[in-house]
Design a protein that fits this description.
Elements (H helix, E strand, L loop, with lengths): L4 E6 L3 H9 L6 E7 L3 H11 L2 E2 L3 H6 L5 E4 L6 H10 L3 E5 L6 H14 L3 E4 L6 H11 L6 E11 L20 H17 L2 E9 L10 E8 L4 E7 L1 E13 L2 E6 L3 E6 L6 E3 L6 H15 L7 H20 L3 E2 H7 L2
Parallel strand pairs: 1-2, 1-4, 2-3, 4-5, 5-6, 7-10
Antiparallel strand pairs: 7-11, 8-9, 8-15, 9-10, 11-12, 12-13, 13-14
Helix pairs in contact: 4-5, 5-9, 7-9, 9-10
């Protein structure tokens, strides 16, 4: 019999299935129950992952044998669903973004802190081994002064979106592609270069149907004065990821097709850096389970996720108003 953290999954959209699939066979965490409003969806999930299909969310929060909740509900439901779980003493793994506005994000952090439960936010891309290698080199001082970074996160969603889904509406996902996938690389950039303090951004709606932006660009100034540039797209020809980080003494270059390369000051050729592709989703969920069992703080916690969100919201405001926006102003307003 497993001694893993007994966990319920709520929401049961496509992403919940991805998370559940990745932790099958884990000894750290096990799925014992699930709930969504659609009876058909919860029975399908329960059959697939051999867990109990709860008749209501109240049943889950009232079940004292359930220790934690994996919350993949829509962004605007995160606060209430997390609050109910926390008040019942259940730890929460929350899908990113933490919320649609900073005020709700802070309320989520506060209710979990007051209840003494672990709050982790799904930010798996920071765990990719190519970024771990860059981070270790930066921390060892081998990059010298960090000066710049550029990154791209792109996918082709033409013909692949459901306009009835909250993920593709202005209310459900304000900022469109910037909030939905751009936030992943905001998180990586803040991990590598430090906090972002001000943002200038542009959003475009060029290809996809619906009301949300499908291309975005942000120029960000970090606390250490380094400058980074992020582009995100749902309107590109194919999936593509890029992250280049420049220091005074060394630089690193990563893209989906060419892998990771490294260049030191004074050299005229890059050096390939081998790395293994790791299961970042399983890692973050097992880290969450470890914090539940043994204490400690998840790497991607509520405060980190709230600052990531504030950067994105600064970008949305910048694009709307056509000016540079201070992240501190977003944090102060709760936007």
């Amino acid at each position: 019999m497993s001694n893993g953290v007994r966990t319920a999954v709520i929401g049961l959209g496509w992403w919940s299935g991805v998370l559940a699939e990745r932790i099958q066979g884990s000894t750290e965490i096990e799925i014992v129950s699930c709930y969504t409003r659609s009876e058909g969806k919860r029975r399908e999930f329960a059959d697939r992952f051999k867990c109990h299909a709860a008749g209501s969310y109240e049943e889950i929060v009232g079940d004292r044998s359930i220790e934690a909740v994996i919350n993949t509900t829509p962004n605007n439901a995160h606060l209430e669903t997390t609050r109910l779980a926390a008040l019942a003493g259940k730890h929460v793994f929350l899908d990113k973004p933490i919320a649609n506005d900073v005020a709700s994000a802070r309320a989520i952090v506060e209710v979990c802190a007051q209840a003494g439960v672990v709050l982790a936010v799904g930010s798996q891309r920071r765990r990719e081994n190519q970024f771990r290698w860059i981070k270790s080199e930066i921390d060892a001082g081998r990059f010298g002064k960090l000066v710049q970074a550029e990154c791209n996160i792109s996918r082709d969603r033409l013909g692949r979106i459901d306009l009835s889904s909250w993920r593709y509406t202005a209310d459900g996902m304000p900022g469109g592609v910037l909030l939905q996938i751009g936030i992943h690389y905001v998180d990586v950039l803040e991990m590598l270069l430090g906090p972002v303090v001000r943002v200038s951004a542009r959003l475009g709606h060029l290809v996809l149907p619906g009301e949300n932006p499908d291309v975005a660009n942000m120029i960000m100034e970090h606390e250490n004065n380094a400058i980074s540039n992020l582009t995100a797209s749902y309107a590109s020809a194919s999936e593509f990821y890029l992250m280049n980080v420049y220091g005074k003494e060394a630089s690193a270059f990563y893209d989906l097709f060419s892998g990771l390369r490294h260049l030191r000051r004074g050299e005229n050729a890059v050096h390939p850096v081998p790395f293994e592709k790791n299961d970042t989703i399983r890692e973050e969920l097992e880290e969450f389970a470890g914090c539940v069992r043994h204490g400690g703080r998840p790497e991607a916690d509520g405060e980190t996720a709230t600052h990531n969100l504030a950067v994105i919201k600064a970008g949305v405001r910048s694009a709307r108003e056509g000016r540079v926006v201070e992240v501190a102003d977003i944090l102060a307003s709760g936007e």
